């Protein structure tokens, strides 16, 4: 195997010079740099990533901690993070915390041990203090952990307002909101957007706690509809939650959208696969993941960033679970 | 920060002895080992993962290369691999190749550079020769790359036979199979299972190429049904493919299962979320991922393995896209 010594010998420079070229640290003359690069090419020298990690305390690895890899929203996000990271020469270590704070802590420790250069968090059970201890740059994605951690989210309140307005414009008179987990800023913001619109419009409303789980959503929807048979619209806080609501409505012998209109939130491809296909508020998922990755890499490389809070716009996608204009009575 | 020197001093042994204990290599007296372990505990010493990697040429990391993270089958597999790996103290580096052979090659190189201890491949575009060059243990999961690489798959042919038999027993007279990608052993095996049963039963059949993609499946199903309006059963080679078929049937104004019965293959939670919920052949997804992870770790740790080809049984799950006994004419 070619070593750094072979490269130095071939380029007729010292090992220290080769090291400076490899790590882009310290002064190297243009002539020496060219000789080293030529030697690296001729000898097909591949610097040992682990040795470089030890020297630089940098691994060119990014940790991405996800709350639930089986919710298709997160693999979509992960794909974007990975795409951008690869472009800049970083590898992504994907960690699925399964909504378990112990697993989140284990991952933080493991990532620290491996000298990852930075971490993207899409979980929020950990406190800022715990996260800060790792001592590497962090970005919060689709979660808000604290002012101190740069954050990328979608405009959740505005998105929820758009969803609720769409249901009202489609003729709904009694709207249920299936909210996400309490204390989760993104879910709380969606609830606030919903409340603002129904209160302003004077439309009857009710809120159920579905978290982001399909089974729970199906159960909660069934309970709500049994207690309030006049509910004719549902705004679900995620697309998976919306699928649970659709299932419940269908099992109760009611029709979507004729009897009950449903709108989701996320815009994952999954919504298109449902029958009828799901009307939803699309988050710019790829852009969110890409923005977070670019932001983190800038922080890692100590480059200036243009802000520390990025709120990306959402988009109403009307499909088949809400009525078309001509169908509204 | 506590160093290996501090541990040696505290335990009153040499640094070399501490190193031997940490790496479980070479002779250490029981007394010395106990002293070192006690010192490690008292001083809360955490060996530097990167330094250990360099010494051992081992990183306690496993690479998992996935073909398409947005197909929910793969996150389910990844979760199982990760669970088992963590239990044994390994971190999983997840690599999404997006069905792109260039990305697969880049990942192989990146994983090699990071001294991963082993790789699990669920892609099969790379040849055995390319994969072998990395020089670490490998396991093929849900894919067959060659006799030389230990393999974990489900019993694809038997599963396909079960699916086709179920459609025939449910009254289907003309069955379409939406096959997976050509040359992919798992997809080919499912096709063979399908052919064997329709030929033996003398039932009319046709095969469409849907790969494993929703949109392609929707299009292919539409084409098949337009050309052959008497098709009354569809065996799809994956659950996502089945969802595409359901969408096409629905868009053409036909009903599932009354007009056309559909069965999928995979058994991902997604199938349960569809309306009507999807009858399918469930692969033991978690068990497959767990088996592959355990097998790889045994290979890494040079422990004996019980075989190099593991074919796990599948299971028919009857839901709502096929008819119940009392509905069959």
Description of the structure:
With 329 residues, the first copy, chain A, is α/β, with parallel strands linked by helices. The longest helix of chain A is centred in the middle third of the chain and has 17 residues, at 185-201. The termini of chain A are far apart. Chain A has helices at residues 4-11, 15-23, 30-43, 49-56, 73-87, 101-113, 128-132, 156-169, 185-201, 214-227, 239-251, 270-273, 285-300; strands at residues 61-66, 91-96, 118-121, 138-141, 151-154, 174-179, 204-209, 233-236, 261-266, 279-282, 309-312, 315-317. In chain A, strand 1 (61-66), helix 5 and strand 2 (91-96) form a beta-alpha-beta unit. The first copy, chain A, is 46% helix and 17% strand. Chain A has three domains: 4-47, 434 Repressor (Amino-terminal Domain); 61-154 and 285-313, Rossmann fold, CATH 3.40.50; 156-283 and 316-327, Response regulator (Rossmann fold), CATH 3.40.50.2300. Chain A is elongated. In chain A, 51% of the residues are buried. The model of chain A has no long low-confidence stretch (mean pLDDT 90). In chain A, the strands form two sheets. Chain A has a six-stranded parallel sheet with strand order 2-1-3-4-5-11, with helices on both faces. In chain A, strands 7-6-8-9-10-12 form a six-stranded mixed sheet, with helices on both faces. At the A-B interface, helix 4, helix 5, strand 2, helix 6 and helix 11 of A face helix 4, helix 5, strand 2, helix 6 and helix 11 of B. Chains A, B: This is LacI family DNA-binding transcriptional regulator. Chains A, B: InterPro entries: HTH_LacI, LacI/GalR-like_sensor, Lambda_DNA-bd_dom_sf, Peripla_BP_I. Chains A, B: Pfam families: LacI, Peripla_BP_3. Chains A, B: It comes from Halalkalibacter alkalisediminis.
